[in-house]
Every structure is written in structure tokens, then in C-alpha cells.
């Protein structure tokens, strides 16, 4: 029997999480359509979501250690976009200078972490300005062949990850916190795996509000574990990855570790979208360190995230509350992980005023409940690049190319047909061959939120075949016909 543990970060950690949300950057993405504008609104609370389909160039500091090389031309539809070579040429001078500087820094691995952060701090303003000038919105541009490789030479490291942070003048607070836990010290000194540490610098700890309660020792350990990945993620791999497994193992997302999300925007490469990576690829004998400017706090539950975003999910929250589904989703004792395909307020508006008035009427609530149940997947957590199932012992990585999976929903005998198209960092997710996931990987403590462009309506059986709704005009009678077989006659408490 699987023993369950309360992995809620607690009031103190939630306080930090809310503060991190408030400190999230104001977006400057170049957006071109309604879906992209919707994404821009969500970036004010981007610790909760990842705007991974609005891909722009990473921070120039990343270019000092990667090379982008492709011999394939872009599709004709993207002829107006600058080519990869044009973009790289614009940054060429800065990249060359960076490469020379990193070569000098690599001479002594003992001081690699200090030197990396020194250089990052000194050059941040100039580099950020140049990247902003060359940034552009090109989600599908990543669909052309892009090979990301380590670019600069490294001398063989002679210190472990823990020894590097313990000897650095920039990570004294992190080292002091980790030193309180003998097993963490052993882990980061060990050689059982090549680890990845997202190391908050000392200034990250200064962002904690003075009135914030001191976290318990158990909570602090969970926060520290959330910064460590048991897998090897150098910068090149981070760039083509949407989520990263951590050492914080929880059973509320299935049998698998809690994950981080990685994001690329005008601020460069970020983790959970609010913590900026300021130094990359500091290699130790047992892994790699990336310096970050903010602490990473384990996220709250799915239901809490929906509640925290009324500007985008107030309609969904109202529906989940009135139908009694919100407390059921929030009760982690009855499921192991899950995926919520969350329609935004705008998605509900697309249904039209008549359908919305019907669904939220006293008579229509039973139909609303059936409709929302079709958006909830229990015991299966589907990230854009990983999949957890409660019945399986190990997580699965979603392969490159096309991945199809049918996810059973709370609606009896009805599943969602999900197709994931993945190539490099470019990912496109379709539900029932129609509704697009516009915001991927809203990392939660008990699962994941995938924001969908449209309310997902159950298929209509015609000639023994399911006919999916493809966005055509829908009347109240049409909706009732699709939901009637699943509607319970019992009264719903208001």
C-alpha cells in the first residue's frame, strides 16, 4: 500500500509562493493574436504557468555556451521571420566576447561559480538590452531543425556540487541551509548520479519579506529538495525541456517527482517563470549548477491555483464550486495526481450568452457538472513532456514526434483524445483534434493544469462513431443532447 504524506508546503511556504507570484516580471512578449494576448495576461502570475508557445530568443548569456547550427531552411510560411543565422549574426560580437570571457573563467574550476556570477552581474544590463532588440515571437520557428550543443571548452572539474556552493561567496546562505541536513550534503557530495542544482544566490534570500514566518525545518527541506534534480540538465538540455524532475518526491502527482517548468522569454531563461537563470553550466564532479535569482517554492494544489487566478478562471471556479467539483478536486485522498484541462473565461465566452445562462441556471447545473467532469482527469498527470500514472511505478518521458494518449475523465466512460506534437522546444497539444492547449504545464502539487482554448464538449454518437465538436455553432438543445446520457437526475446543491 502506498503511504500518503501531506506535501502541502504549508502556510509559510505559500506565503513565499504568493510573494514570488507578485514579483513576477511584467511581460514584453511580441504577441500577435487573441490567444497570445491571453497568454500575456497570465504572465503576471507566471509562477503558475509556462508560456512555452511564445518562444523568443534566450538571454545572451545562454549563447556563450551553446551553438545553434542548422542546415535546413525554414518553411515558406515563416519566410518573413529572420533566419537563425541572421539572429546569431546580430549577437555574434557579444557571443564572441562572452566565449573569450568564459574561456578565461574556466582556467580555475575552484572559483568557477564565483567567476560565473561575477561576470553575469557585470554584463547583465548590456546583454539584456541587446537580446530585447533581437527578440521576436516565433513559436513554430522552433519546428525547424535546431541543434543545441555545448560550445565552450571545460577543464575537468575538481569539486562536487556541494563543495562548489560551500566555497562560493555568492551562495553562502544556500550552503548554510543545506548544511543543516546531513542527507542533502551527502546527496550533493555523492556520485550515484549526475545531479543538477538550481542554486539561488544570496540576493535571492533577501527577497523573502521581513514579515514572512520562518518555515519549519520540514518545509525548508522540501524547498531545498525542489532545487535539485536527480538528472543531468546542462543548459543545452534545459533549453529544449519544458519540465524538469526534482528530488522532491510526492505521491500526489502520481508515482513520480514534483517537477519544475522552464521558460524562455525576453528576460532570458527562467525556472517556473519567475526565477531567472543568471549563470549556467558550472560543472562539478557530480553534476552541474545553474545560478538563479529567486527561490523556488513548491506550488499549491490545482484547486488553489484556479482560485488564485480569478481574472482568467473565475467562470471555471464558479462552475466547479456550484457543482461541488472544486472540493472533490482539492481532496487528494481520493486520487493520485491528475490533469485539469482548464477553459479560461474567454473559452466560456465562446459558447455564447444563451448556453452560459443555461449552464449556470438551477436547471442547467446538472449539465454543467457533466460538462466540467469531461475536463478532469484523475490519477493521470500529463505534462507536455512527461506522463505519470498512479498505477505505474515509473514516469514516462513523452518522445519527440507525435504522441497520442486517451485520458479517462470523470465523465463516465468518456475519454479525451490528446495528441502531443513535440520537436525540440516546440510543443503543440490538441484535445479531441480541436481544442488547443494554449498555456502548458501549470505545475501544481497534486497534478498539472493545461489551459485550453475552448470548452471541450463531449462527442455525439452518430452511426456508432463519435463525432467530436469542432467549434461549429452550438445551441442549448445540441449541448443537452450531447450531455443527456451523463446527467444525473439528483438535485445539485447550490
Protein architecture, described:
The protein is an alpha+beta fold. It has helices at 10-22, 34-42, 60-63, 84-105, 112-134, 161-166, 172-178, 182-189, 202-205, 217-225, 235-239, 302-308, 310-322, 325-330, 345-349, 353-359, 365-373, 476-483, and strands at residues 66-69, 147-150, 195-200, 228-229, 243-250, 256-265, 268-271, 275-284, 287-292, 338-343, 376-378, 380-382, 386-389, 396-397, 401-408, 415-423, 426-431, 435-444, 447-452, 460-462, 465-467. The strands form 5 sheets. Strands 4-3-9-8-7-6-5 form a 7-stranded mixed β-sheet. Helix 12 (302-308) crosses helix 13 and helix 13 crosses helix 17 (365-373). Residues 1-10, 21-109, 124-153 and 489-494 have low confidence and may be disordered.
Largest sheet, order of strands side by side?
4-3-9-8-7-6-5
Give the overall average pLDDT: 74
Distance between the termini: 37 Å
Shape: elongated
Query: What would you report as the Rg, rounded to the nearest angstrom?
Result: 23 Å
Amino acid at each position: 500500500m502506498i503511504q500518503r504524506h501531506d506535501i502541502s508546503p504549508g502556510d509559510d511556504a505559500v506565503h513565499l509562493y504568493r510573494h514570488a507570484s507578485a514579483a513576477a516580471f511584467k511581460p514584453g512578449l511580441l504577441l500577435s493574436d487573441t490567444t497570445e494576448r491571453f497568454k500575456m495576461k497570465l504572465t503576471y502570475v507566471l509562477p503558475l504557468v509556462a508560456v512555452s508557445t511564445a518562444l523568443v530568443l534566450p538571454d545572451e548569456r545562454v549563447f556563450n555556451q551553446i551553438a545553434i547550427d542548422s542546415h535546413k531552411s525554414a518553411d515558406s510560411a515563416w519566410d518573413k521571420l529572420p533566419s537563425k543565422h541572421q539572429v546569431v549574426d546580430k549577437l555574434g560580437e557579444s557571443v564572441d566576447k562572452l566565449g573569450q570571457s568564459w574561456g578565461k573563467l574556466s582556467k580555475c574550476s575552484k572559483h568557477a561559480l564565483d567567476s560565473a556570477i561575477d561576470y553575469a552581474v557585470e554584463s547583465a544590463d548590456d546583454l539584456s538590452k541587446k537580446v530585447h532588440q533581437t527578440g521576436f515571437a516565433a513559436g513554430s520557428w522552433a519546428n525547424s531543425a535546431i541543434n543545441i550543443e555545448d560550445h565552450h571548452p571545460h577543464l575537468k572539474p575538481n569539486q562536487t556540487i556541494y563543495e562548489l556552493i560551500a566555497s562560493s561567496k555568492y551562495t553562502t546562505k544556500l550552503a548554510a541551509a543545506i548544511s543543516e541536513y546531513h542527507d542533502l550534503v551527502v546527496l550533493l557530495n555523492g556520485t550515484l548520479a549526475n545531479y543538477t542544482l538550481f542554486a539561488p544566490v544570496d540576493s535571492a534570500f533577501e527577497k523573502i519579506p521581513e514579515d514572512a514566518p520562518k518555515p519549519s525545518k520540514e518545509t525548508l527541506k522540501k524547498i531545498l529538495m525542489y532545487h535539485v534534480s536527480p538528472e543531468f540538465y546542462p543548459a543545452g538540455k534545459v533549453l529544449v525541456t519544458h519540465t524538469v524532475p526534482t528530488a522532491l518526491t510526492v505521491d500526489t502527482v502520481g508515482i513520480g517527482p514534483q517537477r519544475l517548468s522552464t521558460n524562455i522569454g525576453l528576460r532570458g531563461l527562467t525556472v517556473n517563470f519567475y526565477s531567472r537563470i543568471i549563470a549556467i553550466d558550472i560543472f562539478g564532479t557530480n553534476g552541474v549548477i545553474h545560478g538563479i535569482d529567486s527561490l523556488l517554492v513548491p506550488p499549491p494544489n490545482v484547486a488553489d491555483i484556479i482560485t488564485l487566478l480569478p481574472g482568467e478562471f473565475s467562470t471555471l471556479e464558479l462552475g466547479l464550486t456550484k457543482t461541488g467539483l472544486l472540493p472533490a478536486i482539492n481532496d487528494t485522498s481520493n486520487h493520485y495526481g491528475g490533469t485539469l484541462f482548464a477553459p479560461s473565461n474567454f473559452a466560456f465566452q465562446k459558447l455564447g450568452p444563451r448556453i452560459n445562462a443555461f449552464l449556470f441556471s438551477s436547471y442547467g447545473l446538472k449539465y454543467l457538472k457533466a460538462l466540467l467532469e469531461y475536463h478532469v482527469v484523475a490519477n493521470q498527470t500529463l505534462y507536455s513532456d512527461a506522463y505519470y500514472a498512479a498505477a505505474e511505478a515509473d514516469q514516462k518521458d513523452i518522445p519527440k514526434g507525435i504522441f497520442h494518449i486517451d485520458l479517462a475523465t470523470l465523465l463516465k466512460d468518456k475519454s479525451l483524445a490528446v495528441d502531443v506534437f513535440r520537436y525540440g522546444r516546440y510543443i503543440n497539444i490538441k484535445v479531441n483534434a480541436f481544442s488547443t492547449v494554449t498555456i502548458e504545464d501549470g505545475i501544481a502539487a497534486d497534478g498539472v493544469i493545461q489551459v485550453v482554448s475552448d470548452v471541450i464538449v463531449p462527442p455525439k454518437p452518430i452511426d456508432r462513431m463519435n463525432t467530436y465538436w469542432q467549434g461549429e455553432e452550438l445551441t442549448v438543445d445540441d449541448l443537452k443532447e450531447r450531455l443527456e446520457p451523463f446527467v444525473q437526475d439528483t438535485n445539485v446543491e447550490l
